[in-house]
Amino acid sequence: MLYCSTRGGVQGRDFRDVLFSGFTSDGGLFMPESIPELSADILRDWRKLSYTKVVVEVCSLFIPTQLIPRQDLEVLVDKALSGFSIPEVVRIAHLKDGLSVLELFHGESLAFKDLSISCTVHFLNYILRKENDRAIILVATSGDTGGSAIQSSKGLSGLDVVVVYPKGRVTPVQEKHMIACVEDNIHVFAAEGSSDDIDQVVRRVFGDLELVRCHRLLSLNTVNWSRVMIQLAHFIYAYLELSGVEGDGDLLEMEVVIPTGGAGNLTAAYIVKLMGLPLKLVAMVNCNDILHRMVTTGDFSMEAEVIQTLSSAIDIQDPINIERVLWLLLGRDAALVKTIMEEFQQTHKYTLLEHHRRMLSQVFSTGRVTDEEILDTMKKCWDENHYLLCPHTAVGVWRHYHCPDRSRSRCFVATASPAKFQSAVQMAGLPFDLPESLLALDRLPTRFENLDRSLTWRDDWEKRLKEKILSLGSLRKNGQI
After folding, report:
1. What's the rounded Cα separation, in Å, for the pair 146 and 188?
2. How many helices (H) and strands (E) does the chain have?
3. Structure letter (DSSP) for residue 67
4. What is the pLDDT of residues 248-266, one digit of tens each?
5. What is this structure's pTM?
6. How would residue 480 be classed by pLDDT, with cut points 50, 70 and 90?
7. DSSP secondary structure string for all residues of 426-447
8. DSSP of 186-212
């Protein structure tokens, strides 16, 4: 399996190159040059596999055994997922009236990103140890990615992690998962701006190809293909559990409802659909509704500012992974994707051609949910099931109550634990006691640096981050870390 850029300037790279990359050198994202197919017979063979085993099978389709032998791959995935709070790692809650919730939040930072980040970190560390080398991970986060990256990487000898989060735009628990880690290889910045502001600056840092090369700078955002690859397993596992594949007839369609910000899970689900699983995809968004407008009207443009909502981790107006979706949708026309994305990045707006909009609307439909509707959904689910939803999961589950459909199986993706969003739970008037593991975070020392807002904030932030990377590289070279 070889990989190429969505913008056409990079081709024929292997998984190792992709794993150790952020954006491609032409500004695009890596994608596999071909998408493997999963036949009905293969899916039936996988029917009894655990989630962990599904991850191994998925990864084996994209990672050559010359890089990570199958036996080592199994050990790495087992180790990566061994610290989750339930033995099955991922589970499905079966609630009233056919409401099936795919719980992806049982890792250490209580968010779905623990699954893909933990596996990716173990792949990275495995290769770095074999090569007796180190790397620096740079992470831009809207809330959950930073905590997951830190919890997965803390104390590992081969990795330094630099995380940038939007100060005042994450929950106290999300923030504590980042700033309360004082391991020597963890470095956290609190930026006075939105997650989209941070993404702009991080993209500029990765655009310094000499810096990236000299200091083995890489990404753990879903810019990194490995994250998306592992997320394929979420949707394959859910289909195996909910669709009744044990029969000999045609595979039945299943609807998957995904709360969507950066569109990493949406991209993974679309790839799974292209692999042969009959999925009906629904992307649910909050008031930062760029994807909803893109699908319904063709308006692919950012608003003047990011709106702060109860579902803060999807307060995103630059859905980075939509570039991968467009590349697949447009027949891998890299030149067209490059034109669209460069215009969007330069002007923050683009209008899809009508036939492209129609094509996109056939890939996934969308819905938009307000904070009031989030709270109403959380209340209704509690009243009917005594089951707490986080505000992001409620963005998706809103569809269960307002667009009922008994004609097919449905799966609603739960991206985070409600324990991370106590304020929203209290606003919904629901009972909740914070777990002791989270209460303990308040007693831990903290460490972080501020990135202040100024008239030249982009340049200032870029300079600070590059200085940190250069400093870590120098210390590493001199054997001081």
Report:
1. 9
2. 20, 15
3. T
4. 778 899 999 999 999 999 9
5. 0.91
6. low
7. HHTT------HHHHGGGGS---
8. EEEEEESS-HHHHHHHHHHHHT-HHHH
